[in-house]
Design goal:
By secondary structure, this protein is mainly β. It is built from no helices and 22 strands. It has one domain (2-158): Pectate Lyase C-like (3 Solenoid), CATH 2.160.20.10.
């Protein structure tokens, strides 16, 4: 998909979003311009995707309606480059999300931005992002093996260890 508002917007459970190539998600204003957006559902797998040059966020797990839920979703082995804001974003209502083996670079803000303390981050790599490589809240589950370098914030990572 090339030059679209949002690449893939998904609600539902038990889905697999795999091996897509999404380029130039330009958006429609606030909260748009996302490569892949999971907005409701449990047990989904987002894997092996390439997302480049999203206006806002590369891959996002975020609900917009109070009755929506995101539980036990996996974001694994994706490549995100050149997102305007965050390469990967996990909102506060996305419980028990697993981010594993993702490679993110050149996001305008954080490479990986997590707001849910129940998320687990394992073997993710964040390079040359505008602020932190990985920003996570206190209590987030550090699965180990995360790396970061060349990011705008000298801390590189917050609340996870990055080798």
């Amino acid at each position: 998909m090339v030059r679209n508002g949002d690449g893939i917007v998904l609600s539902g459970s038990g889905n697999r979003i795999a091996r897509n190539h999404i380029v130039n998600s330009r958006g429609c204003g606030d909260e748009c311009g996302v490569g892949i957006s999971l907005e409701d559902g449990n047990g989904n797998l987002i894997t092996g995707n390439v997302v480049r040059h999203s206006r806002d966020t590369g891959i996002r797990l975020l609900t917009f309606v109070r009755s929506q839920h995101l539980r036990d979703n996996v974001v694994r082995n994706n490549r995100v480059r050149g997102a305007g804001r965050y390469a990967l974003m996990v909102g506060p209502s996305a419980t028990r999300a697993l981010l594993k083996g993702n490679r993110v670079s050149r996001a305008g803000d954080d490479g990986i931005h997590v707001e849910s303390p129940t998320a687990k981050l394992t073997r993710n790599h964040a390079r040359r992002n505008g602020d932190l490589g990985i920003a996570a809240p206190a209590g987030v589950i550090d699965g180990g093996g995360n790396t970061a370098g060349g990011n705008g914030n000298p801390l590189q990572c917050l609340n996870v260890f990055c080798g």
